[in-house]
Amino acid sequence: xxxxxxxxxxxxxxxxxxxxxxxxxxxxxxxxxxxxxxxxxxxxxxxxxxxxxxxxxxxxxxxxxxxxxxxxxxxxxxxxxxxxxxxxxxxxxxxxxxxxxxxxxxxxxxxxxxxxxxxxxxxxxxxxxxxxxxxxxxxxxxxxxxxxxxxxxxxxxxxxxxxxxxxxxxxxxxxxxxxxxxxxxxxxxxxxxxxxxxxxxxxxxxxxxxxxxxxxxxxxxxxxxxxxxxxxxxxxxxxxxxxxxxxxxxxxxxxxxxxxxxxxxxxxxxxxxxxxxxxxxxxxxxxxxxxxxxxxxx
Length: 298
Fold this sequence. Notes:
Blueprint: H1 5-32, H2 47-67, H3 71-85, H4 89-101, H5 105-113, H6 121-134, H7 138-151, H8 156-168, H9 172-185, H10 190-202, H11 206-215, H12 220-242, H13 248-253
């Protein structure tokens, strides 16, 4: 049967929506399959992520300033950080370190004391120990440094400073364990090796001390400084034992070590109050108010 022109027109009009729907379906499929993904804009980082990264970078900057000895500049940046991001226990600890580094020991002690129940307890005890040692209070220094080691038993700086505080107090036998731990935990750490070599000299193990310093490739200036420090500490130990006020514990622990070669022996240099070039870290001024050990875990 022949189709009239009017029926053909209706058929063409009916097919148009179907064709349009097919195009839409093809477009949707192309989008789902990823053909148009290249045109999508990259997602913006979340504001919280950007803020956290900024805080971390700023704290790293403050730490680097203190490692370089720029304590006053770090104090200014600590104030600026607090204005922008608020206060945190770590920021207060950095401020206490800066106070100690600028000779404000009382302010540093008060700030350290507020951190003893925070996640900064170890660094706070360490700071209090360094302040006590700088004041010549060996008992308080050893107690605070012992607590720091209890909080963080793998911290090389804490172990080394505890051992040295015991040497200053005349407790030669008690100093061995923390110094040996530090040297064995970090055999490549020059300061840890130097401290243990110092203990060996005081204990009379000259050959072992010399071999250790040779393996560590310490410069001659550093070896001479360790020799002089051993002479000074040995004299202090003997003087403490000869006085009536010497504690029974120190007298029983510190046996008289064999004589350390004097500083005026051949090859040695005269002692001098200034820091010696090549010496790893503050050795003669080990517990100076500006001492900030940077070593942590191995």
